[in-house]
């Protein structure tokens, strides 16, 4: 992995180039970017052929260990790594600890290791087992073992422990990676911990940056993936800003959070380069379709306009519509006219409403296609808007769409 900053924006955030070289060649990417969210090694609800129907699919497939770690012996026996095993050999494979959309039980980590959860229940990973799993999977990038089981409620003692443990794990992993033939070309992503303590964040950032890591994953703000809106708390933004100061410019900074386009812009302006695409998946699971308008000024006529006068429907915001709503029974337009995705080109809201109503799996296939298409399009738009120096305008527009009308969106 190689990362270079192309431009630092006056309004915050940076545009960069990320490249990954393997025996198959070099993959060049631009930041800000998102990774492809996966479940059990594939894009949720989609076959490889269906995935190809989506535009601008990220080059990096993010695979969390919870659902796949217990299969590492099979993958080892297969002998060609997780990319081939999951028919994603053309992707950069990035293994992380936890699924951003799944609740994680708290209090299960200790100095001996970290717990992950899959279908078979809890699996405790100590550094040795962790590296055994990574060697079987042979990822292009992998997160170092870390204790991110912290949030705003944690006291100083717990935060100190999280940082210490994570650094100890990192030292063990660096040592084992140096001795591993299989992982010698894999990039190691160090985790930054410290909850809401500026002091511990600073220590974690400085100490991690002093070790041979290729990028940083910032976590430990949200114990158990509680889905709180981190941006509702000014302190989160202060702590994140302070953390960034101590990270070197020439390595990417990542956050694996379930974030709407508006939250992504806010995190990008604070210095995050690489994001998850877990957000569109969470919408899909609820029967929601992403309808945020990224153009300046907004021009599209999303299907939500058909709901005018239905403001009592709290399940719909300006970012998405709830296709379970019975008002879509007779809506014969696509989710988002002009979207260009396979779903919008071929199906009406009425049909999607019917599929959801009858619990047909096709509903989730078609919604995944649309929601991924729109979310991936957002990142292209975010880069373009950054180049045009119009991030504040886009942030304001999205904030208005969310109904926030917040005064504090322009910094
Ligand atoms: Zn669409």
Automatic annotation (TrEMBL):
<comment type="function">
    <text>Non-catalytic subunit of the queuine tRNA-ribosyltransferase (TGT) that catalyzes the base-exchange of a guanine (G) residue with queuine (Q) at position 34 (anticodon wobble position) in tRNAs with GU(N) anticodons (tRNA-Asp, -Asn, -His and -Tyr), resulting in the hypermodified nucleoside queuosine (7-(((4,5-cis-dihydroxy-2-cyclopenten-1-yl)amino)methyl)-7-deazaguanosine).</text>
</comment>
<feature type="binding site">
    <location>
        <position position="339"/>
    </location>
    <ligand>
        <name>Zn(2+)</name>
    </ligand>
</feature>
<comment type="subunit">
    <text>Heterodimer of a catalytic subunit and an accessory subunit.</text>
</comment>
<dbReference type="InterPro" id="IPR028592">
    <property type="entry name" value="QTRTD1"/>
</dbReference>
<dbReference type="Pfam" id="PF01702">
    <property type="entry name" value="TGT"/>
</dbReference>
<dbReference type="InterPro" id="IPR036511">
    <property type="entry name" value="TGT-like_sf"/>
</dbReference>
<comment type="similarity">
    <text>Belongs to the queuine tRNA-ribosyltransferase family. QTRT2 subfamily.</text>
</comment>
<dbReference type="InterPro" id="IPR050852">
    <property type="entry name" value="Queuine_tRNA-ribosyltrfase"/>
</dbReference>
<dbReference type="InterPro" id="IPR002616">
    <property type="entry name" value="tRNA_ribo_trans-like"/>
</dbReference>
<keyword id="KW-0862">Zinc</keyword>
<keyword id="KW-0963">Cytoplasm</keyword>
<protein>
    <recommendedName>
        <fullName>Queuine tRNA-ribosyltransferase accessory subunit 2</fullName>
    </recommendedName>
</protein>
<keyword id="KW-0819">tRNA processing</keyword>
<feature type="domain" description="tRNA-guanine(15) transglycosylase-like">
    <location>
        <begin position="12"/>
        <end position="401"/>
    </location>
</feature>
<keyword id="KW-0479">Metal-binding</keyword>
<feature type="binding site">
    <location>
        <position position="344"/>
    </location>
    <ligand>
        <name>Zn(2+)</name>
    </ligand>
</feature>
<feature type="binding site">
    <location>
        <position position="341"/>
    </location>
    <ligand>
        <name>Zn(2+)</name>
    </ligand>
</feature>
<feature type="binding site">
    <location>
        <position position="370"/>
    </location>
    <ligand>
        <name>Zn(2+)</name>
    </ligand>
</feature>
């Amino acid at each position: 992995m190689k990362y270079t900053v192309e431009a630092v924006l006056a309004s915050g955030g940076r545009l960069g180039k990320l490249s990954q070289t393997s025996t198959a060649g070099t993959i060049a990417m631009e930041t800000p970017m998102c990774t492809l969210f996966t479940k059990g090694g594939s894009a949720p609800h989609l076959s490889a052929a269906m995935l190809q129907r989506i535009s601008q699919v990220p080059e990096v497939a993010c695979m969390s260990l919870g659902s796949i770690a217990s299969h590492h012996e099979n993958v080892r026996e297969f002998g060609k790594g997780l990319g081939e095993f999951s028919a994603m050999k053309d992707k950069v494979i990035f293994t992380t600890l936890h699924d951003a959309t799944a609740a994680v039980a708290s209090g299960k980590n200790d100095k001996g290791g970290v717990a992950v959860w899959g279908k078979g229940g809890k699996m405790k990973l100590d550094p040795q087992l962790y590296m055994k799993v990574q060697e079987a999977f042979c990822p292009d990038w992998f997160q170092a073992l870390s204790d991110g089981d912290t949030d705003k409620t944690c006291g100083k003692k717990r935060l100190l422990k999280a940082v210490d443990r994570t650094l100890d794990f990192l030292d063990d992993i660096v040592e084992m990676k140096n001795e591993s033939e299989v992982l010698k070309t894999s990039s190691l992503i160090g985790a930054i911990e410290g909850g809401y303590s500026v002091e511990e964040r600073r220590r974690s950032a400085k100490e991690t940056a002093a070790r041979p890591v290729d990028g940083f994953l910032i976590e430990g703000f949200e114990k158990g993936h509680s889905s709180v809106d981190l941006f509702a708390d000014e302190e989160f933004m202060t702590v994140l800003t302070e953390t960034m100061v101590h990270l070197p410019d020439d390595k990417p900074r990542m956050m694996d959070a379930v974030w709407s386009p508006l939250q992504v812009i806010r995190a990008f302006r604070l210095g995050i380069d690489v994001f998850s695409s877990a957000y569109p998946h969470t919408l899909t699971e609820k029967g929601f379709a992403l309808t945020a308008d990224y153009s300046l000024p907004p021009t599209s006529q999303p299907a939500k306009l058909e709901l005018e006068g239905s403001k009592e429907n709290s399940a719909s915001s300006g970012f998405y519509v709830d296709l379970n709503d019975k008002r879509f029974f007779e809506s014969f337009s696509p989710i988002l006219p002009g979207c260009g995705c396979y779903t919008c080109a071929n199906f009406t809201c009425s049909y999607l409403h019917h599929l959801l109503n009858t619990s047909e799996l096709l509903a989730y296939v078609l919604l995944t296609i649309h929601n991924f298409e729109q979310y991936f399009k957002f990142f292209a738009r975010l880069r373009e808007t950054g180049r045009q120096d119009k991030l504040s305008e886009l942030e304001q527009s999205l904030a208005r769409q969310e109904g926030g009308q917040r005064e504090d969106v322009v910094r």
